[in-house]
Specification:
By secondary structure, the chain is α/β, with parallel strands linked by helices. The protein has a domain of 165 residues: P-loop containing nucleotide triphosphate hydrolases (Rossmann fold, 3-Layer(aba) Sandwich). It is 33% helix and 23% strand. The strands form two sheets. Strands 6-7-8-3-9-10-11 form a seven-stranded mixed β-sheet, with helices on both faces. It has a four-stranded antiparallel β-sheet with strand order 2-1-4-5, with helices on one face. Strand 7, helix 5 and strand 8 form a beta-alpha-beta unit. Helix 2 crosses helix 3, helix 2 runs parallel beside helix 4 and helix 3 crosses helix 4. The chain is globular, with a radius of gyration of 19 Å. The structure holds adenosine-5'-triphosphate (ATP) and magnesium ion (MG). Adenosine-5'-triphosphate binds next to strand 1 and helix 1.
């Protein structure tokens, strides 16, 4: 029996920039993600994080290996996986309410109007946008738009939420607030989440498990770090945890010093539990 979301020996090749051959972006990526787990992938720009997320989303095909979600092989996009991209992707002519309603209706075609309405309102409230429900995206700030994207993704109650640097374009202050909102929504829903980020602090705040990806080409998941800092977590409380700086330094050291292939021993994959060597 595999995990709820099982990524098995996934490799990806793209035509290389010279056009003469293929380039291996990453190879043999393997991970099993249990239901209700929040997993983050951290790695340098270009190592293939978005490509991996898109393969799980069914938007991109693996060159080798495959992904199984809840016993079913992924070969196309589906409403059991919702993606939040960094560029919001809302329908500009629709209000906040309507943007969420189309998603809920698509996911639950048999629901009555009142059931759809209740669900839409619940998720609008969850992200604190009740007062802005009738506004169109152009009338909202970047942070508010991103909250609509998050509400829309959660409202479908997908088996897996796929978040590709969802806060990258948001200013630092708003980002902190939305990260904390995401923590609290996740605490209530316990969705399975697969997120890509550059931000080490964000990864520690949100994750049960952080996968560290080496630089490409031929990138791989070199290490998995379990974050056992107790929940609920907030940005101010986690920094007081005795393991926090140890974990943070370990990850930053990996990114700066050990993420190139030539910097690492050949056997690669290791696993840390309970915040770095106990
Ligand atoms: N359609 C494509 N055709 C050819 N090469 C591609 C294609 N899509 C991505 N790549 C290449 O694959 C590599 C990985 O890209 P990807 O976008 O997955 O990286 P990433 O880790 O998400 O980077 P970032 O952190 O900057 O978002 C890059 O070298 C990129 O140029
Ligand atoms: Mg990316």
């Amino acid at each position: 029996m595999g995990a709820f979301l099982e990524v098995s020996y996934v490799s990806k090749y793209f035509p290389d920039p010279s056009g003469r051959g293929m380039q291996c972006i990453f190879k043999d990526v393997q991970c099993g993600i249990d239901q209700g787990t929040f997993v983050t992938v951290v790695g340098h720009s270009g190592c293939g994080k978005s490509t991996l997320l898109n393969i799980i989303a069914g938007l991109e095909r693996a060159s080798a290996g495959g992904v199984v979600l809840d016993g079913k092989e992924i070969d196309a996009p589906g409403l059991d996986r919702m993606v939040v991209f960094q560029n919001f992707a809302l329908m500009p002519w629709m209000s906040v309410y309507e943007n969420i309603r189309v998603a809920v209706k698509a996911a639950h075609p048999a629901w009555a109007q009142t059931q759809v309405h209740a669900c839409v309102l619940k998720y609008i409230e969850m992200v604190g946008l009740t007062d802005a429900a009738s506004k169109r995206p152009a009338m909202l700030s970047g942070g508010m738009r991103q909250r609509v994207g998050i509400a829309r993704a959660f409202s479908v109650e997908p088996k897996v939420l796929l978040l590709d640097e969802p806060f990258a374009q948001i200013d630092a202050l708003t980002r902190g607030a939305i990260q904390e909102e995401l923590v609290s929504i996740w605490m209530r829903t316990r969705n399975t989440v697969f997120m890509v980020t550059h931000d080490v602090d964000e990864a520690i705040l949100l994750s049960d498990r952080i996968m560290l990806m080496t630089r490409g080409p031929e990138a791989e998941i070199a290490e998995v770090v379990d974050i056992t800092i107790p929940r609920p977590r907030s940005r101010t409380s986690i920094i007081e945890h005795p393991h926090y700086y140890k974990i943070r330094n370990h990850i930053i050291h990996f990114l700066v010093e050990r993420s190139r292939r030539c910097d690492r021993p050949a056997e690669a994959m290791s696993h840390h539990t309970g915040g770095i060597h106990g």
